[in-house]
Amino acid sequence: MRAVRYYGKEDIRIEQIPEPTVGQGQVKIAPAFVGLCGTDLHEYLGGPVFCPTHRHPLTGESIPVTLGHEFSGVITEIGPDVAGFRIGQPCCIQPTIFCGACPACKSGAENVCRDGGFGGGLSEAVCVDAKSVFALPESVGLETGALVEPLAVAWHALSAAPELAPASTVLIIGGGPIGLALILCLKAKGVETIVVSEIAASRQSFARQFGATQVVNPLHDDINKVVLDVSGGSGADVAFDCAGVPASIKSACAAVRARGTVVNVAIWEKEVPFNPNWVMHKDSNFRSVLGYHKQDFEAVIENLRTGAIEPNGMITAKIRFDNVVEDGIKKLISDRDSHVKILVDINAT
After folding, report:
1. How confident is the model at residue 349, as a pLDDT?
2. Which of 7, 10, 82, 83 is nearest to 52 (CA)?
3. Which of 39-53, 82-96, 208-222, 333-347 has the lowest mean pLDDT?
4. Is the pTM of this model over 0.85?
């Protein structure tokens, strides 16, 4: 079967590899749509970052490995001791790999398992643990199903700020795919006042389209003043940093109200200055999140079913499997501000 394999920096190949055999407790899936993610770009430009260079303790794999952890597909085979699924059933997959036995997993934080990782779906077949497979409702198509994973990242981020309510004022710094997904999830929660800080004009437009109350350009606008104006002078109840640059973390801390919450969602490429006084002087909270849990997938799928989340505007291009590098990875590098999510259509000819 064909698969998109990662060998190292700027080295991604489409190869023929053996088709996997479904095992006990597993389901075999024919991937349909696979979203390209920022982590794929990090791997291509400067990796390996997350791709294992030595034998992974859980999967036994090391590079070359199959990319693509945002995917939907159709069930083609059901392994022994698996119930609740049927052949031909549309589904999406939680791609995280975790041991279930380390202290993090035992505490319910399998998203930060010490031996964790991701499975890849950029191939013509994949076998996964049945516990990681989520059936899609009839009203949710396979294209939308490929968006469940990035939406689950955003939904999980909301759990770091349980005080969120419809009357909350929220600041999102960074209008990339996860920042935009946060807008959709906040709207589904009924939050009415959402301010987005973003430099790129195209992403500003996406933020407005997805439902941001106000969009500011931090190069020209005073973020603090805008947030104070829309919050009646108190500041943001919650600020999500999705940008991951030195100015964003400082801006988030400055804009949040007394005893408010700053949530770091961004993945940082290097160390940056951080002064604890930024949060201490407001008695505010600084939280961080990574990935998602099973319940985040379940919540996103239910909100897709009811129509509370309508994410198809996130899909800005669909490309053929054979063109994943030129039309996908390289396009996101050269013109990323014009795209939210590029999907690889596995079956396109």
Report:
1. 81
2. 7
3. 39-53
4. yes
pLDDT, tens digit, 9 for 90 and up, residues 246-288: 999 999 999 999 999 999 999 887 889 999 999 999 999 999 9
Per-residue pLDDT of 36-75, as tens digits, reads 998 888 899 888 888 999 999 998 899 999 999 999 999 9
Tell me if 75 sits within 8 A of 62, measured CB to CB.
Answer: no
Amino acid at 225: K
The burial class, CB within 10 Å (0-12 / 13-18 / 19+), for 349 is: exposed
User: 118 with 61: CB under 8 angstroms?
Assistant: no
